[in-house]
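May I ask you to review the protein record following this short note?
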Amino acid sequence: MKKLLTTLVIFLLVVDFSYSQNSWTYVSALPSPSPAGNSLAVVNANILWVAASATGGAARCYRSVNGGVSWQLRTGGLPAQDLYGISALDSLFAVVGTVAGSIYKTTNGGLNWTLVMTGGNFCNGLKMFNSSYGVFIGDPASSGQPYQLRVTNNGGNNWYLVPTAPIAGSEFGVINAWDWTDTNHFWMGSANTIPNSTNAKIYRTSTGFYGTWSSATVPGTGGSQGMYYQAVAFVNNTNGIIGSSGANLKKTTDGGVTWSDCAVPPGLGLSYAVMNASGLKDGSNTIRISVDSGGVAKIYRTTNLGTSWINEPLPIQASANTVSHLQFVNQNLGFGLLGSQTVPLGGLIKYGPTSGINPVNGEVPESFSLGQNYPNPFNPTTNINFSIVKSGFVKLVVYDALGKVVETLLSESMMPGKYTVTYDASKLNSGIYFYKLTSNGMSDTKKMMLVK
């Protein structure tokens, strides 16, 4: 992802700025009626897919090709059911699951979906590893029945039951509560449905979906609806963390055979629910968890298997919501899906480089303004000056001549001040572009020319 060099200029006073530092920023809400986001598929920095609840009695599946800045409803042929579990290879190919356990496939960006599997149960997860091979996790039909684990080897056209799938007790799977490091190593959480139960199982295999599945019964704190291990994240084949609905955080160093307590993240106390988790497989040992703490969403990061945690502040749109699903591309780029059944306001937050702008000397401009970029024409970098007079959420977006978003330069809360953004357009073609500044109900647009 391109880093933006951003400098704060307050008249002719001393400049104070820092290079891009990573943080969470709010990107957008899902289009009205903003249904709860259930599952997220991140292809890259630009292409994202969301499976959402059927708010308003209609299917809700969305695609974005500009990093979530705008969304397209793509539901041709989908039933009016809640959608759970989604996986995509690009902007055209995706598979999505339903509350009834069916799977639908699209090869034209969601304009048309084809039913490719029925007879399953509630979809907890889908993953296409390539254009041929993919896996599906569905609930067991009932206690004493196997989990609905299925595999495709022909691009999602057919999904075959796994004969070695584990047999469920009084339990079911949990949406997005699974992880993998490759096509051999998988782990999945479960929900013990016995009220006030004190344990739940974590399933694992190191020999692939068709291989041998084992389980560990992990202690925890249950409630009236049971005991849910609903967050699972691994960084390699041995080290991982799980989290529960009852304020339990456990770690393993032997691939899930045994589990022990993690430290409690700062500020959580004894009552919280771990909603989801994400682990990077890049050697950094980074695991993040999203938490519901008394109705307030939080995200914590650890690089030492939960011995210590770092709180990553969230924008207000997220902290007042639920971060239901986390997905990361790398250390510097990740996304969080917002919305739940209790807070059904779907949206997207993004983790990545931000401007790192800080106010200097407290001097406030007299008016909102957007300056003409300089130089203009330019190749490939140019500077954009702007001023904001009140604290608030600021967006600076570049559009092409057809009005399509090509780059979001800023999307964050900022203090009053005069700013300069240096924009690198090396990835764009020559032509006319527009940039628009929006803040506190005011906006302005300017034209610029890129000549290569």
Remarks:
- The CA atoms of residues 84 and 97 lie 5 Å apart.
